[in-house]
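Dear Dr. H.,

I hope your travels went smoothly. While you were away I took the liberty of generating a structure for the chain from your last submission, since the lab meeting agenda had it listed for discussion. I wanted you to have the full record in hand beforehand rather than looking at slides cold. The sequence, exactly as received, is reproduced here:
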Amino acid sequence: QENFFRAYYFARQAHGDQLRVGGEKYINHPFRVAKRTEEFFPDNEPVVIAAMLHDVLEDTDVDSDWMHDEFGFVVTKYVKYLTKTPKVEGINREQRFLMDLNSMTHAPEAIESVKLIDRIDNLQTADLFKRSFLKVYYRESLQMLTMLRRAKEELREDLYETLLKINDNHKLERGSE
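The corresponding predicted structure, in token form, is as follows:
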């Protein structure tokens, strides 16, 4: 528990005043992801800590050296698996996303589950997304289900059900419009 709270405070400080779509304090998202991860992996502290820190490298000024000094090699490695490839000229979002999914298939199985937990939590605010972004995010989520086959089946089913509801509400697939 001590390391969990240390990771929480580290993430809270790193994310600072960041807000999510809809105005929620950003730190609530990694906290929910970590708590849900803990339900599936109660005895795997590095995975739970990585879930708490999963957006720190991607969305803050914290670098991997600092994270390594605070939480060690394993947690930092797991967070790197969960971190999106930054924008680079000549590589579009879809290419970066596929690179990230390919990388994820080399991560420990539990990290695939964390990625799905993160996606499911993000999709809880899908009604606030711009339609053009929601279409992209929906397609990416379907690709996740195809590629991240080692994730817990309950999470795969949860993501699938979430996507069905989103499609019902927003008519994203052809033939549904």
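Two observations you may find useful: The mean pLDDT is 95. The two ends are 48 Å apart (CA to CA).

With kind regards,
E. W.
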